[in-house]
Amino acid sequence: MRDNPRFGRVKLAKTMFYADFTAYAEEGEPLTGARYFHWPQGPFTAEIYAAEERLVNSGRATLKEPQFKYDEAKLSAEAFTPRLTEGWQRAFLDIKMDEIAEQGTATEVSDLSHEHPGWRVTKDRDEIPYYAVHISAEGPTEADIAAADAVVREQGWV
Questions:
Q1: Residue 128, helix vs strand vs coil
Q2: Distance (Å, whole) CA 158 – CA 156
Q3: Going by C-beta distance under 8 Å and a sequence separation of 6 or more, which residues neighbour residue 1?
Q4: What's the DSSP call for residue 59?
Q5: 144 by DSSP, 3-state: which?
Q6: 3-state DSSP call for residue 16?
Q7: Exposed, middle or buried, 131 (CB in 10 Å: 0-12/13-18/19+)?
Q8: Tens digits of residue pLDDT in 129-155
Q9: Average of pLDDT values for 56-62?
Q10: Do residues 38 and 122 touch, judged by C-beta distance below 8 A?
Q11: Secondary structure tally for the chain: helices H, strands E
Q12: Sequence-ordered list of residues with C-beta below 8 angstroms from that of 41, at least 6 positions apart, any chain
């Protein structure tokens, strides 16, 4: 899927975001440790540019500039091999790449990323902390509110 012509910089950024944050939620540490920020098109890491440059300079990938006004740069991924140390990390990243590649256009993937709790609780250009994976996307339930109210009253904060 990484060689899919519809898989460019935006989808790569979202793949890395979801892979890092899901790994953090499940394993207690992200895959890459990249820093992600709240941008208008969703979570993004500027480290994508450095990774692209390293891949291109090493001859392991080529960067194809957009052909049309609303296209994005495409990173040809024939030789894209992230340096992940454990087999599960590679498999995990491959699964995320396949999922993102199939989710529609870059714009649709970006719009969907606006639903992630980390993006929703931050403001423009704020860093999205990894612990944001523990924030519920649905918000507090009635039981949560009642439990919080009980703690507030018990502590004498009201």
A1: strand
A2: 5
A3: 7, 97, 98, 101, 102
A4: T
A5: helix
A6: helix
A7: exposed
A8: 999 999 887 878 899 899 999 999 999
A9: 74
A10: yes
A11: 6, 5
A12: 10, 110
Alpha carbon 62 to chain centroid, angstroms: 23
- Cα 32 to Cα 35: distance, rounded to the nearest angstrom: 9
pLDDT for 1 equals 44
Both tokens of 29, joined, read: 């540490």
3-state secondary structure of 60: coil
pLDDT, one tens digit per residue, over 3-18 is 566 677 888 889 889 9
- Eight-state DSSP code of residue 78: T
- Beginning with the edge strand found earlier in the chain, give each strand of the sheet holding 42-44 in spatial order: 42-44, 36-39, 127-128
**Can you read off the two tokens belonging to residue 22?**
């899901």
Which position has the token pair 């960067």?
63
pTM equals 0.74
Task: Count CA atoms closer than 13 A to 23's CA, side-chain side.
Answer: 23
- The answer to whether 130 and 20 have CB atoms below 8 angstroms apart is yes
